[in-house]
Amino acid sequence: MLTRYGALLFAAGFAFLLFVLFTSQPLGAPTMLAGQAVLNEAAGTVGAANIVTAVVLAYRGIDTLGELSILFAAATAVGLVLGRSHGTDAAATAREPGGFILRAGADLLFPLLLVVGFYIIVHGHLTPGGGFQGGVVLAAAFVLPVLARPSETISHSAMAWVEGLAGGVFIVTGLLALAVDRAFLTPLLGTGQLGTLLSAGTLPLLYLAVGLKVGAELANLLLRMTEEESGT
Amino acid sequence: MSEFALLTLLIGALGLIALGIGGLVLSRNLFRIVLALSLAEAGANLLLVLVGFRRDAVAPIIESGQALTAIMVDPIPQAMVLTAIVIGVGVQALALSLAIRAYAAYGTLDMSVMRRRMEADIDAAAGAQPATSLHAPAGGRPLPPISAPRLAHDKGAQA
Fold first, then answer.
1. Which tens digit of pLDDT belongs to each residue from B85-129?
2. Do B79 and A128 touch (CB under 8 A)?
3. Domain ranges of chain B
4. Of A39, B47, B65, B135, which cross-links B13 as Cys (Cβ 3.0–4.6 Å)?
C-alpha cells in the first residue's frame, strides 16, 4: 500500500518539477539558436520547402539512419520472439473471411490508401508529411486486405526484400555523397527550384526509401501479430 | 494561441506523463503497463513540440507566395518528435510481442500471478522447496534432500 502512495507521490512530484521547469522558461519564445540558423539557411542550401524534412534528412540524416536501424532491430526482435508462424496452412484456411462490408470496404480503400501513402511520401519535402507518415499509410493499405480475407496472407519474404532494398538505397545514397568528397548523406544533385516536386536533390529519393522501409516493416509487424493471434 | 490554451497544453502534456508513470508503477496487468508507457511517451512528445512553440509563428514550411523571412516555429523539436514516435512504435511492438509470449507461457497477464508461477517453475526446475515467505527464503538454511513426491505434494498443497 505504501509503495502505491509512494508511486503516486513520485508521479505528481515529477510532473510538478517539469511544470516549474517549463514555466520558469519564457513559454512561447524559445531561444532557438540552432533552429533559427536552420530556418535561415535551409531554403538556400537544402532546397526543401518543408524545413522539418530538411532537418530529418539533411542536417540529421545519420540520426534518421540510426532510427531506421532501431526500427529494423525492433521488427527483427519481434520476428525472433514470435517465431515462425506454426502451421500456417491449417491455421490460415481455417479462418473465415470478414463480412461483406469489410471485404468491399477493403477492396475500395486499398488503391486509395496506396495513392495517399505514395502522395504523402513523394511530397514529403514540400508539404507536411513524409516517409514515416506515408509509410504508416502504406502499411495500413497492406494490412487491411488481410483483415478482410485472413486466408490470403502476404509473403514475408517479399516484404523483407522491399525492406532490404529500401534500406540499401538509403545507405548507397549516403555513400555516394561520401564518394564525391563530401560528408555522409549530404544531399546531392543540387537544390532545384524551391517548392517544385523535383527539388531538394536526393531528399525525395531518401524519403521514398524511408517510406517503403517503414511501410514494409510495420506491415510485417502487424501481420506477424495477427498470425500469432490466429495460430495459438 | 492564447495564454490559456498554452497553459492547458502544458498541463495536459505533464498530466499525460504523470498518468503514464502512475499507471506504469501501479498497474499489474502487462498490457496496461504497455499502454501506460505509450501514454507517458505521448506526453513527452507533446512537451517536446511545445518547447519549440513560438508566439505568432507559422509551421516551418515555406509556401510558394510566402516571404522567406516569416517567423516560424523551431523545426528541430518537431524532427526529434518524428523520430521519437517511430521508435516508440517499435518499442511498443516489441513489448507487446513479449507480452504475447508471456501469456502463452503462463496463461495470465497479471504480474503478481505471473511472478508466482515463474518462481514455482524455477523452484521445480532447480529441485528446491518453494519459498513459503519473503522473510524465510528456502535457501537460507540447510534442507534435507527433497524427493520428487514430496515436491509434488508441496506444490499441490500450495495450490
1. 888 988 898 999 899 888 888 888 888 888 888 888 888 888 777
2. no
3. 1-56+72-108, 110-130+147-159
4. B47
CB contact (8 A) between residue A28 and residue B53: yes
Q: Write out chain A residues lying below 8 Å of B76, CB-based.
A: 34-35, 38, 55
Length of chain B measured in residues: 159
Set of cell numbers at residue A23: 514555466
Instruction: Mention the CATH class of domain B1-56+72-108.
Output: mainly alpha
Please check the confidence at residue B64 and state whether its pLDDT lies above 80.
no
The packing angle between helices A33-45 and B75-106, to 10°, is: 100
Q: Do A30 and B51 touch (CB under 8 A)?
A: yes
Q: What is the pTM of this model?
A: 0.78
The answer to whether residue B11 neighbours chain A at the CB level (below 8 Å) is yes
CA A134 from centre of chain? 7
* Residue position matching grid coordinates 521514398: A208
Provide, as residue numbers in chain B, all residues whose Cβ is less than 8 Å from the Cβ of A77.
94, 97
**Residues of chain B with C-beta less than 8 angstroms from the C-beta of A27:** 6, 10, 50, 53
B:118-137 residues touching chain A, CB 8 A cutoff: none
